[in-house]
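Example 4.3 (complexes with small molecules)
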Amino acid sequence: MRPESTAIVTGGARGIGQSICVELARRGASVVVADLDSEEMAETKELVEETGQRCELVETDVASSESVQKTVEWVLEEFGSIEYLVNNAGIAGPTAPCEEVSTEEWEQTLAVNLKGPFQMCREVLPHMRAESFGRIVNIASVTGKRPLPNRTPYATSKMGVIGFTRTLAAEVGEENINVNAVCPGSVDGPRIRRVFERQADETGQTYEEVRAEVEREAARGELVDREDVAGLVGFLCSEQSERITGQDINVSAGKVMY
Ligand SMILES: NC(=O)c1ccc[n+]([C@@H]2O[C@H](COP(=O)([O-])OP(=O)(O)OC[C@H]3O[C@@H](n4cnc5c(N)ncnc54)[C@H](O)[C@@H]3O)[C@@H](O)[C@H]2O)c1
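Answer. The structure with nicotinamide-adenine-dinucleotide bound is encoded below.
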């Protein structure tokens, strides 16, 4: 990564976003964590600082244009430039048949997952254009490529993220700004365990049966680690990936192959 560079990672307080913050710091960037609650981000700060890099926490709601604007202004004042942007913040949205999804649930899911990356890019792009350099990575999902019944708002938002990624990549490529999407499969951790437990309750299966079924769907017969996702994000921010843009790359242990 570029020396003295700065990365903003949205939703970096925990989960995949936290691993991305640490990966980018190990590769040499200062990291700004943009998440809802600064207390929750404290652990990420500690982990990033262990790498020797600077880490700042900025309370940000990516669904609010005002909040996004303030965050980007603050980062530019503090750091002078923004080379890397990782749009990772996301919510699962409701699990329900389409006709039972409320307008509020629909709007909230799309506001965080799709409007959020758009608003972050809109604020950061003028500065990346001025520097003729930028690497943007949007965290989509394999659900951005194939249907997931009873999750219409989430799947629609992630399909939108892939469309947004391709379109923006075509707009800014000649200015040395790359835009890619990373599509994780089911990532092992507390969140996916809760999903399996809920599914087990609903179907009368055991937790182990539900988990084994999901694992069997992947070519490697396993779930994904959050570090696998972070590793790809790091690569997409590195010199080795200079001519990779507009792509949506799966990290799914071979669950999805297109
Ligand atoms: N975990 C998985 O299996 C999986 C699979 C595919 C894709 N993804 C995607 O990866 C990304 C990270 O997922 P995760 O599992 O680590 O999630 P997580 O719930 O553990 O973490 C998400 C983070 O985003 C933050 N956030 C939520 N709304 C926000 C907002 N409005 N503004 C700023 N921050 C906000 C949360 O506070 C949290 O820290 C998401 O975009 C998710 O859709 C996850």
